[in-house]
Amino acid sequence: MNTRTQVYLWAAQRMSAVVLAVCVLVHLGTLIYAVQGGLSATEILGRSRGSAAWAAFYGVFVLAVAVHAPIGLRSVLAEWLGWRGTGLDALVIVVALAIAALGMRALWAVIA
Amino acid sequence: MRNDWRARSHAGWWAFLVHRVSGILLTLFLPLHFLALGLALEGEAALDAALRWTEQPLVKAAEVVLVVLLAAHAAGGIRLLMLEFLPWREWHKTLLAVAGGVTLAVGVGFLLNLV
Amino acid sequence: MSVLQVDVWRGGESGSFQRFEVPRLESQTVLDVVTHIQRVLDPTLSYRFACRVGMCGSCAMTVNGRARWTCRTHVAEVVAGGALEIAPLRNLPVIKDLVTDMREFFDKWAAARGQFRPSASRKDDFARVEPDSPRRQLVDAGIECIGCGVCYAACDVVSWNPEYLGPAALNRAWTLVNDVRDGARDERLAAVAGDAGCHACHTHMSCTERCPKKISPTAAIAGLKRATLGAALKGKA
Ligand code: SF4
Ligand code: SF4
Ligand code: FES
Q1: Does residue C201 line the site of ligand 1, with CB under 6 A?
Q2: By alpha-carbon position, which residue is closest to atom 3 of ligand 3?
Protein backbone atom coordinates (compact mmCIF):
# COMPACT_ATOMS: atom_id res chain seq x y z
CA MET A 1 0.00 0.00 0.00
CA ASN A 2 1.44 3.36 -0.90
CA THR A 3 1.97 6.14 1.60
CA ARG A 4 -0.78 8.34 0.26
CA THR A 5 -3.36 5.59 0.73
CA GLN A 6 -2.11 5.17 4.30
CA VAL A 7 -2.65 8.87 4.90
CA TYR A 8 -6.16 8.61 3.45
CA LEU A 9 -6.92 5.62 5.67
CA TRP A 10 -5.94 7.70 8.68
CA ALA A 11 -8.12 10.57 7.45
CA ALA A 12 -11.04 8.24 6.70
CA GLN A 13 -10.87 6.86 10.21
CA ARG A 14 -10.93 10.32 11.74
CA MET A 15 -13.74 11.56 9.49
CA SER A 16 -15.85 8.49 10.18
CA ALA A 17 -15.08 9.08 13.88
CA VAL A 18 -16.68 12.52 13.69
CA VAL A 19 -19.82 11.01 12.13
CA LEU A 20 -19.80 8.19 14.67
CA ALA A 21 -19.48 10.61 17.58
CA VAL A 22 -22.86 12.08 16.62
CA CYS A 23 -24.41 8.68 15.83
CA VAL A 24 -23.27 7.12 19.10
CA LEU A 25 -24.68 10.04 21.06
CA VAL A 26 -28.11 9.55 19.46
CA HIS A 27 -27.83 5.77 19.77
CA LEU A 28 -26.95 5.91 23.47
CA GLY A 29 -29.80 8.34 24.09
CA THR A 30 -32.27 6.06 22.32
CA LEU A 31 -30.90 3.07 24.18
CA ILE A 32 -31.30 4.60 27.62
CA TYR A 33 -34.80 5.72 26.68
CA ALA A 34 -35.77 2.39 25.10
CA VAL A 35 -34.66 0.05 27.91
CA GLN A 36 -37.11 1.65 30.33
CA GLY A 37 -39.68 -1.01 31.13
CA GLY A 38 -37.78 -3.66 29.18
CA LEU A 39 -37.30 -4.25 25.47
CA SER A 40 -39.87 -5.84 23.20
CA ALA A 41 -39.88 -6.52 19.49
CA THR A 42 -43.21 -4.74 19.07
CA GLU A 43 -41.79 -1.63 20.68
CA ILE A 44 -38.54 -1.67 18.65
CA LEU A 45 -40.17 -2.42 15.33
CA GLY A 46 -42.99 0.01 16.05
CA ARG A 47 -40.38 2.74 16.24
CA SER A 48 -38.36 1.71 13.22
CA ARG A 49 -40.71 0.12 10.63
CA GLY A 50 -41.33 2.38 7.68
CA SER A 51 -39.44 5.29 9.20
CA ALA A 52 -37.31 7.03 6.58
CA ALA A 53 -35.58 9.11 9.27
CA TRP A 54 -34.38 6.07 11.25
CA ALA A 55 -33.42 4.31 8.01
CA ALA A 56 -31.27 7.24 6.93
CA PHE A 57 -29.74 7.66 10.37
CA TYR A 58 -28.85 4.01 10.89
CA GLY A 59 -27.74 3.69 7.25
CA VAL A 60 -25.14 6.41 7.83
CA PHE A 61 -24.23 4.81 11.17
CA VAL A 62 -23.58 1.40 9.58
CA LEU A 63 -21.47 2.83 6.76
CA ALA A 64 -19.40 4.96 9.14
CA VAL A 65 -18.67 2.00 11.39
CA ALA A 66 -17.82 -0.16 8.36
CA VAL A 67 -15.12 2.41 7.54
CA HIS A 68 -13.99 3.08 11.09
CA ALA A 69 -13.64 -0.35 12.71
CA PRO A 70 -11.61 -2.16 10.01
CA ILE A 71 -9.00 0.61 9.90
CA GLY A 72 -8.57 0.30 13.65
CA LEU A 73 -8.38 -3.47 13.32
CA ARG A 74 -5.61 -3.03 10.77
CA SER A 75 -3.43 -1.21 13.33
CA VAL A 76 -4.23 -3.72 16.06
CA LEU A 77 -3.34 -6.72 13.90
CA ALA A 78 -0.14 -5.08 12.65
CA GLU A 79 1.05 -3.93 16.06
CA TRP A 80 -0.06 -6.75 18.31
CA LEU A 81 0.06 -9.77 16.01
CA GLY A 82 2.68 -8.61 13.53
CA TRP A 83 0.43 -9.09 10.48
CA ARG A 84 1.44 -6.75 7.71
CA GLY A 85 1.33 -6.39 3.94
CA THR A 86 -1.17 -7.24 1.22
CA GLY A 87 -2.78 -10.11 3.11
CA LEU A 88 -3.67 -7.83 6.00
CA ASP A 89 -5.02 -5.13 3.69
CA ALA A 90 -7.19 -7.68 1.87
CA LEU A 91 -8.51 -9.01 5.18
CA VAL A 92 -9.39 -5.49 6.28
CA ILE A 93 -11.39 -4.89 3.09
CA VAL A 94 -13.27 -8.17 3.61
CA VAL A 95 -14.08 -7.18 7.21
CA ALA A 96 -15.31 -3.79 6.02
CA LEU A 97 -17.59 -5.35 3.42
CA ALA A 98 -18.87 -7.94 5.91
CA ILE A 99 -19.73 -5.27 8.50
CA ALA A 100 -21.48 -3.17 5.84
CA ALA A 101 -23.44 -6.16 4.51
CA LEU A 102 -24.51 -7.47 7.92
CA GLY A 103 -25.39 -3.96 9.03
CA MET A 104 -27.52 -3.27 5.97
CA ARG A 105 -29.26 -6.62 6.39
CA ALA A 106 -30.08 -5.76 10.01
CA LEU A 107 -31.30 -2.36 8.92
CA TRP A 108 -33.54 -3.93 6.28
CA ALA A 109 -34.88 -6.33 8.89
CA VAL A 110 -36.08 -3.62 11.24
CA ILE A 111 -37.15 -0.98 8.71
CA ALA A 112 -38.90 -2.86 5.92
CA MET B 1 14.25 -4.85 25.33
CA ARG B 2 10.74 -3.53 25.77
CA ASN B 3 8.98 -1.34 28.27
CA ASP B 4 7.04 -2.80 31.16
CA TRP B 5 4.15 -1.39 33.18
CA ARG B 6 6.44 0.97 35.08
CA ALA B 7 7.12 2.92 31.90
CA ARG B 8 3.47 2.77 30.87
CA SER B 9 1.73 3.79 34.05
CA HIS B 10 0.60 7.27 33.14
CA ALA B 11 -2.80 8.66 32.20
CA GLY B 12 -2.27 8.83 28.45
CA TRP B 13 -1.18 5.21 28.18
CA TRP B 14 -4.11 3.88 30.20
CA ALA B 15 -6.43 5.95 28.04
CA PHE B 16 -4.89 4.34 24.97
CA LEU B 17 -5.38 0.87 26.41
CA VAL B 18 -9.04 1.52 27.22
CA HIS B 19 -9.56 2.91 23.73
CA ARG B 20 -7.92 -0.03 22.04
CA VAL B 21 -9.51 -2.79 24.12
CA SER B 22 -12.98 -1.20 23.88
CA GLY B 23 -12.50 -0.86 20.12
CA ILE B 24 -11.61 -4.54 19.75
CA LEU B 25 -14.51 -5.73 21.89
CA LEU B 26 -17.03 -3.47 20.14
CA THR B 27 -15.82 -4.70 16.75
CA LEU B 28 -16.32 -8.30 17.89
CA PHE B 29 -19.79 -7.50 19.24
CA LEU B 30 -20.93 -5.72 16.10
CA PRO B 31 -21.68 -8.83 13.96
CA LEU B 32 -23.63 -10.41 16.84
CA HIS B 33 -25.67 -7.25 17.24
CA PHE B 34 -26.45 -7.15 13.50
CA LEU B 35 -27.35 -10.84 13.40
CA ALA B 36 -29.69 -10.43 16.36
CA LEU B 37 -31.52 -7.53 14.69
CA GLY B 38 -31.60 -9.56 11.48
CA LEU B 39 -33.84 -12.05 13.28
CA ALA B 40 -36.68 -9.64 12.60
CA LEU B 41 -36.56 -10.94 9.04
CA GLU B 42 -38.06 -14.14 10.43
CA GLY B 43 -40.83 -12.19 12.11
CA GLU B 44 -41.46 -10.39 15.36
CA ALA B 45 -41.53 -13.61 17.36
CA ALA B 46 -37.92 -14.50 16.50
CA LEU B 47 -36.70 -11.08 17.62
CA ASP B 48 -38.77 -11.34 20.79
CA ALA B 49 -37.20 -14.71 21.59
CA ALA B 50 -33.74 -13.13 21.30
CA LEU B 51 -34.80 -10.20 23.48
CA ARG B 52 -36.13 -12.57 26.13
CA TRP B 53 -32.79 -14.32 26.13
CA THR B 54 -31.17 -10.99 27.02
CA GLU B 55 -33.31 -10.77 30.18
CA GLN B 56 -30.90 -13.12 32.01
CA PRO B 57 -28.90 -11.30 34.66
CA LEU B 58 -25.53 -12.24 33.14
CA VAL B 59 -26.53 -11.03 29.69
CA LYS B 60 -27.90 -7.85 31.22
CA ALA B 61 -24.58 -7.29 32.97
CA ALA B 62 -22.79 -7.81 29.66
CA GLU B 63 -25.09 -5.21 28.11
CA VAL B 64 -24.09 -2.66 30.72
CA VAL B 65 -20.45 -3.42 30.03
CA LEU B 66 -21.03 -2.94 26.29
CA VAL B 67 -22.75 0.39 26.83
CA VAL B 68 -19.87 1.53 29.02
CA LEU B 69 -17.36 0.38 26.38
CA LEU B 70 -19.23 2.28 23.68
CA ALA B 71 -19.39 5.41 25.82
CA ALA B 72 -15.71 5.12 26.73
CA HIS B 73 -14.66 4.62 23.12
CA ALA B 74 -16.78 7.55 21.95
CA ALA B 75 -15.73 9.95 24.70
CA GLY B 76 -12.09 8.88 24.45
CA GLY B 77 -12.29 9.21 20.69
CA ILE B 78 -13.62 12.76 20.84
CA ARG B 79 -10.73 13.54 23.17
CA LEU B 80 -8.29 12.14 20.58
CA LEU B 81 -9.87 14.17 17.78
CA MET B 82 -9.49 17.30 19.89
CA LEU B 83 -5.84 16.53 20.59
CA GLU B 84 -5.09 15.82 16.93
CA PHE B 85 -7.07 18.56 15.26
CA LEU B 86 -7.22 21.53 17.63
CA PRO B 87 -4.26 23.79 18.38
CA TRP B 88 -2.12 22.09 21.01
CA ARG B 89 -2.54 23.08 24.63
CA GLU B 90 -1.91 21.56 28.04
CA TRP B 91 -5.30 20.00 28.50
CA HIS B 92 -4.95 16.30 27.83
CA LYS B 93 -5.48 15.30 31.44
CA THR B 94 -8.53 17.57 31.72
CA LEU B 95 -9.98 16.04 28.55
CA LEU B 96 -9.34 12.60 29.95
CA ALA B 97 -11.11 13.45 33.21
CA VAL B 98 -14.12 14.76 31.28
CA ALA B 99 -14.18 11.65 29.07
CA GLY B 100 -14.07 9.45 32.18
CA GLY B 101 -16.89 11.42 33.77
CA VAL B 102 -19.08 11.19 30.67
CA THR B 103 -18.47 7.43 30.45
CA LEU B 104 -19.43 6.96 34.07
CA ALA B 105 -22.57 9.08 33.67
CA VAL B 106 -23.72 7.10 30.64
CA GLY B 107 -23.05 3.81 32.42
CA VAL B 108 -25.01 4.85 35.50
CA GLY B 109 -27.79 6.34 33.36
CA PHE B 110 -28.18 3.09 31.45
CA LEU B 111 -28.02 0.95 34.56
CA LEU B 112 -30.71 2.98 36.36
CA ASN B 113 -33.07 2.73 33.40
CA LEU B 114 -32.32 -0.95 32.82
CA VAL B 115 -33.24 -2.20 36.28
CA MET C 1 26.05 6.91 56.10
CA SER C 2 23.25 5.12 54.29
CA VAL C 3 23.83 2.78 51.40
CA LEU C 4 21.97 2.41 48.10
CA GLN C 5 21.20 -1.03 46.73
CA VAL C 6 21.79 -0.63 43.00
CA ASP C 7 20.92 -3.26 40.40
CA VAL C 8 22.81 -2.58 37.19
CA TRP C 9 22.29 -4.35 33.86
CA ARG C 10 25.38 -6.29 32.80
CA GLY C 11 26.03 -7.92 29.45
CA GLY C 12 24.29 -7.47 26.13
CA GLU C 13 20.76 -8.14 25.00
CA SER C 14 20.66 -11.29 27.15
CA GLY C 15 22.35 -10.21 30.33
CA SER C 16 21.27 -9.89 33.93
CA PHE C 17 21.25 -7.43 36.80
CA GLN C 18 24.23 -7.19 39.14
CA ARG C 19 23.83 -5.77 42.64
CA PHE C 20 26.19 -3.02 43.89
CA GLU C 21 26.19 -1.14 47.15
CA VAL C 22 26.83 2.56 46.70
CA PRO C 23 27.16 5.16 49.46
CA ARG C 24 24.24 7.59 49.47
CA LEU C 25 25.43 11.20 49.19
CA GLU C 26 23.67 14.50 49.33
CA SER C 27 22.46 15.90 45.95
CA GLN C 28 23.63 12.70 44.30
CA THR C 29 22.50 12.08 40.72
CA VAL C 30 21.89 8.70 39.11
CA LEU C 31 24.91 9.38 36.90
CA ASP C 32 26.99 9.93 40.06
CA VAL C 33 25.91 6.48 41.22
CA VAL C 34 26.91 4.83 37.95
CA THR C 35 30.20 6.71 37.92
CA HIS C 36 30.95 5.59 41.49
CA ILE C 37 30.40 1.98 40.50
CA GLN C 38 32.69 2.29 37.49
CA ARG C 39 35.45 4.23 39.30
CA VAL C 40 35.44 2.39 42.60
CA LEU C 41 33.69 -0.96 42.35
CA ASP C 42 34.00 -2.36 38.83
CA PRO C 43 36.03 -0.60 36.12
CA THR C 44 34.62 -2.92 33.44
CA LEU C 45 31.18 -1.26 33.60
CA SER C 46 30.33 0.48 30.32
CA TYR C 47 28.12 3.57 30.12
CA ARG C 48 27.97 6.88 28.27
CA PHE C 49 28.00 10.47 29.39
CA ALA C 50 29.72 13.68 28.34
CA CYS C 51 28.43 17.03 29.54
CA ARG C 52 26.90 16.09 32.95
CA VAL C 53 24.67 19.16 32.70
CA GLY C 54 21.81 18.04 30.50
CA MET C 55 23.05 19.33 27.17
CA CYS C 56 24.62 16.49 25.21
CA GLY C 57 21.92 13.86 25.49
CA SER C 58 24.29 10.92 25.91
CA CYS C 59 23.51 9.73 29.43
CA ALA C 60 19.94 8.42 29.08
CA MET C 61 19.17 5.10 30.77
CA THR C 62 16.20 3.20 32.13
CA VAL C 63 15.97 4.03 35.83
CA ASN C 64 13.47 2.03 37.89
CA GLY C 65 11.71 1.13 34.65
CA ARG C 66 11.50 4.60 33.14
CA ALA C 67 13.70 6.31 30.59
CA ARG C 68 15.51 9.31 32.07
CA TRP C 69 18.51 11.56 31.60
CA THR C 70 20.72 10.36 34.43
CA CYS C 71 22.96 13.39 34.86
CA ARG C 72 20.03 15.54 35.89
CA THR C 73 18.00 12.98 37.74
CA HIS C 74 18.57 13.18 41.47
CA VAL C 75 18.59 9.90 43.32
CA ALA C 76 16.06 11.43 45.71
CA GLU C 77 13.51 11.76 42.88
CA VAL C 78 13.60 8.12 41.85
CA VAL C 79 14.90 5.96 44.68
CA ALA C 80 12.35 3.44 45.90
CA GLY C 81 12.99 1.90 49.31
CA GLY C 82 16.72 2.59 49.15
CA ALA C 83 17.02 0.75 45.83
CA LEU C 84 17.68 1.69 42.21
CA GLU C 85 17.44 -0.39 39.07
CA ILE C 86 19.53 0.92 36.19
CA ALA C 87 19.23 -0.58 32.72
CA PRO C 88 20.00 0.48 29.14
CA LEU C 89 17.39 2.39 27.11
CA ARG C 90 14.53 0.30 25.69
CA ASN C 91 13.82 -0.10 21.99
CA LEU C 92 17.50 0.03 21.05
CA PRO C 93 19.97 -2.85 20.68
CA VAL C 94 22.17 -3.22 23.76
CA ILE C 95 25.88 -3.16 23.01
CA LYS C 96 27.12 -3.76 26.54
CA ASP C 97 25.87 -2.94 30.04
CA LEU C 98 24.27 0.51 29.89
CA VAL C 99 25.37 1.34 26.35
CA THR C 100 22.91 1.02 23.48
CA ASP C 101 23.43 1.23 19.75
CA MET C 102 21.82 4.56 18.79
CA ARG C 103 22.38 4.09 15.04
CA GLU C 104 18.77 3.29 14.21
CA PHE C 105 17.59 6.27 16.25
CA PHE C 106 19.74 8.74 14.31
CA ASP C 107 19.24 7.02 10.95
CA LYS C 108 15.55 7.69 11.43
CA TRP C 109 16.24 11.41 11.95
CA ALA C 110 17.93 11.38 8.57
CA ALA C 111 15.06 9.37 7.04
CA ALA C 112 12.60 11.95 8.38
CA ARG C 113 14.62 14.59 6.49
CA GLY C 114 15.92 16.07 9.72
CA GLN C 115 18.48 18.18 7.82
CA PHE C 116 17.87 21.86 7.15
CA ARG C 117 17.85 22.62 3.42
CA PRO C 118 18.33 26.35 2.79
CA SER C 119 16.08 28.01 0.24
CA ALA C 120 18.31 31.08 -0.07
CA SER C 121 21.94 31.44 -1.09
CA ARG C 122 24.82 33.34 0.51
CA LYS C 123 24.09 36.25 -1.84
CA ASP C 124 20.69 36.75 -0.26
CA ASP C 125 20.09 38.94 2.74
CA PHE C 126 19.53 37.46 6.19
CA ALA C 127 16.10 35.98 6.70
CA ARG C 128 14.10 37.93 9.24
CA VAL C 129 12.05 35.67 11.49
CA GLU C 130 9.87 37.45 14.02
CA PRO C 131 10.36 35.70 17.38
CA ASP C 132 6.68 35.85 18.17
CA SER C 133 5.36 34.85 14.75
CA PRO C 134 3.15 31.74 15.00
CA ARG C 135 5.48 29.49 13.00
CA ARG C 136 8.54 30.53 14.96
CA GLN C 137 6.60 29.76 18.16
CA LEU C 138 5.96 26.24 16.86
CA VAL C 139 9.68 25.85 16.14
CA ASP C 140 10.53 27.08 19.64
CA ALA C 141 8.29 24.44 21.18
CA GLY C 142 10.46 21.64 19.82
CA ILE C 143 13.88 23.09 19.07
CA GLU C 144 15.56 22.40 22.42
CA CYS C 145 15.70 18.64 21.80
CA ILE C 146 19.06 17.20 22.89
CA GLY C 147 18.66 13.92 21.02
CA CYS C 148 18.78 11.84 24.17
CA GLY C 149 16.46 9.08 22.91
CA VAL C 150 14.30 9.05 26.04
CA CYS C 151 11.10 9.56 24.03
CA TYR C 152 12.09 6.89 21.52
CA ALA C 153 12.73 4.42 24.34
CA ALA C 154 9.40 5.30 25.98
CA CYS C 155 7.29 4.89 22.83
CA ASP C 156 5.46 1.58 22.51
CA VAL C 157 4.66 2.15 18.86
CA VAL C 158 8.43 1.94 18.25
CA SER C 159 8.36 -1.50 19.93
CA TRP C 160 5.31 -2.69 17.99
CA ASN C 161 6.19 -1.20 14.61
CA PRO C 162 9.96 -1.29 14.06
CA GLU C 163 9.69 0.88 10.93
CA TYR C 164 8.19 3.74 12.93
CA LEU C 165 10.35 6.86 12.75
CA GLY C 166 9.62 7.70 16.37
CA PRO C 167 8.87 10.85 18.34
CA ALA C 168 12.28 12.56 18.24
CA ALA C 169 12.75 12.35 14.47
CA LEU C 170 9.18 13.52 13.86
CA ASN C 171 9.57 16.36 16.34
CA ARG C 172 12.70 17.42 14.47
CA ALA C 173 10.87 17.26 11.14
CA TRP C 174 8.08 19.46 12.52
CA THR C 175 10.54 22.17 13.60
CA LEU C 176 11.88 22.24 10.04
CA VAL C 177 8.41 22.22 8.47
CA ASN C 178 7.81 25.43 10.42
CA ASP C 179 11.16 26.97 9.53
CA VAL C 180 10.32 29.67 6.99
CA ARG C 181 13.87 29.51 5.58
CA ASP C 182 13.70 25.81 4.76
CA GLY C 183 13.24 24.65 1.17
CA ALA C 184 12.45 20.94 1.53
CA ARG C 185 8.92 21.05 2.94
CA ASP C 186 7.20 18.79 0.39
CA GLU C 187 9.91 16.14 0.47
CA ARG C 188 9.92 16.12 4.24
CA LEU C 189 6.15 15.84 4.53
CA ALA C 190 6.25 12.93 2.09
CA ALA C 191 8.99 11.28 4.16
CA VAL C 192 7.08 11.46 7.46
CA ALA C 193 3.61 10.42 6.22
CA GLY C 194 1.86 7.09 6.61
CA ASP C 195 2.28 3.88 8.59
CA ALA C 196 5.99 4.30 9.30
CA GLY C 197 5.58 8.00 9.99
CA CYS C 198 3.36 10.33 11.96
CA HIS C 199 0.11 8.50 11.22
CA ALA C 200 1.29 5.50 13.24
CA CYS C 201 1.28 7.55 16.45
CA HIS C 202 -1.57 6.70 18.85
CA THR C 203 -1.17 9.73 21.09
CA HIS C 204 -0.06 7.65 24.10
CA MET C 205 1.91 10.67 25.22
CA SER C 206 4.63 8.49 26.72
CA CYS C 207 7.16 10.60 24.81
CA THR C 208 5.68 13.84 26.11
CA GLU C 209 5.41 12.42 29.61
CA ARG C 210 9.11 11.44 29.72
CA CYS C 211 10.96 14.06 27.65
CA PRO C 212 13.43 15.69 30.05
CA LYS C 213 13.30 18.92 28.04
CA LYS C 214 9.53 19.14 28.49
CA ILE C 215 9.02 18.96 24.74
CA SER C 216 5.80 17.47 23.43
CA PRO C 217 6.60 15.31 20.39
CA THR C 218 2.91 14.33 20.46
CA ALA C 219 2.03 17.93 19.61
CA ALA C 220 4.56 18.00 16.78
CA ILE C 221 3.24 14.70 15.43
CA ALA C 222 -0.35 15.98 15.52
CA GLY C 223 0.81 18.96 13.47
CA LEU C 224 2.52 16.66 10.98
CA LYS C 225 -0.58 14.48 10.65
CA ARG C 226 -2.60 17.50 9.53
CA ALA C 227 0.12 19.00 7.36
CA THR C 228 0.79 15.72 5.54
CA LEU C 229 -2.93 15.23 4.90
CA GLY C 230 -3.01 18.71 3.36
CA ALA C 231 0.00 17.85 1.21
CA ALA C 232 -1.54 14.52 0.14
CA LEU C 233 -4.75 16.26 -0.90
CA LYS C 234 -2.70 18.66 -3.01
CA GLY C 235 -0.99 15.66 -4.60
CA LYS C 236 2.35 16.35 -2.91
CA ALA C 237 2.80 13.57 -0.37
S1 SF4 D 1 2.46 9.96 21.52
FE2 SF4 D 1 3.05 8.94 19.61
S3 SF4 D 1 5.25 9.18 19.50
FE4 SF4 D 1 4.66 9.66 21.59
S5 SF4 D 1 4.91 7.77 22.71
FE6 SF4 D 1 2.82 7.80 21.95
S7 SF4 D 1 2.81 6.77 19.99
FE8 SF4 D 1 4.93 7.26 20.52
S1 SF4 E 1 12.35 15.07 22.27
FE2 SF4 E 1 12.99 15.10 24.40
S3 SF4 E 1 13.16 12.96 24.96
FE4 SF4 E 1 13.12 13.03 22.74
S5 SF4 E 1 15.26 13.03 22.13
FE6 SF4 E 1 14.58 15.17 22.25
S7 SF4 E 1 15.08 15.82 24.33
FE8 SF4 E 1 15.21 13.60 24.31
S1 FES F 1 25.63 13.73 30.31
FE2 FES F 1 25.02 15.16 28.81
S3 FES F 1 22.87 15.17 29.02
FE4 FES F 1 23.47 13.88 30.65
Answers
A1: yes
A2: C54
Phi, psi of C63 (to 5 degrees): -110, 120
The CATH code of the domain that includes A10 is: 1.20.1300.10
What is the mean predicted confidence (pLDDT) over C79-99?
97
Share of chain C above pLDDT 90, in %: 98
Tell me: the pLDDT tens digits for C187-234? 999 999 999 999 999 999 999 999 999 999 999 999 999 999 999 999
* Cβ neighbours of C204 in B, within 8 Å: 12-13, 16
The string of pLDDT tens digits covering residues A52-86 is 999 999 999 999 999 999 999 999 999 999 999 99
Instruction: Identify the structural domains of chain B with CATH numbers, from first to last.
Output: 5-114 (1.20.1300.10)
Please tell me the distance from the alpha carbon of residue C61 to that of residue C41, in angstroms, as a whole number. 20
Ligand 1 centre distance from Cα of residue B62 (Å): 32
Instruction: Spell out where chain C has E strands.
Output: 3-10, 16-23, 60-63, 66-69, 83-87, 94-96, 99-100
Please provide the average confidence, as pLDDT, over all residues in chain C: 97
Catalogue all structural domains in chain C, each as residue range(s) with its CATH number. Answer: 3-100 (3.10.20.30), 103-233 (1.10.1060.10)
Question: Which residue's alpha carbon is nearest to atom 7 within ligand 2?
Answer: C145
Provide the β-strand partners of residue C67: C62
Residue B23 with chain A: CB contacts under 8 Å: 69, 72, 76
Which of C152, C175, C211 to probe ligand 2 with, by most ligand atoms within 8 A of CB?
C211
> Which ligand 3 atom sits nearest the alpha carbon of residue C55?
3
ipTM exceeding the 0.90 mark: yes
For residues C63 and C84, the answer to whether their CB atoms sit within 8 Å is yes
Angle (deg, nearest 10), helices B92-114 and B57-85 = 160
Asked if C199 is an interface residue toward chain A (Cβ–Cβ < 8 A), one would say yes
* Contacts by residues B92-101 (CB-CB < 8 Å, ≥ 24 positions apart): B92/B11, B92/B12, B92/C205, B93/B11, B96/B11, B96/B12, B96/B15, B99/B15, B99/B72, B99/B75, B100/B75
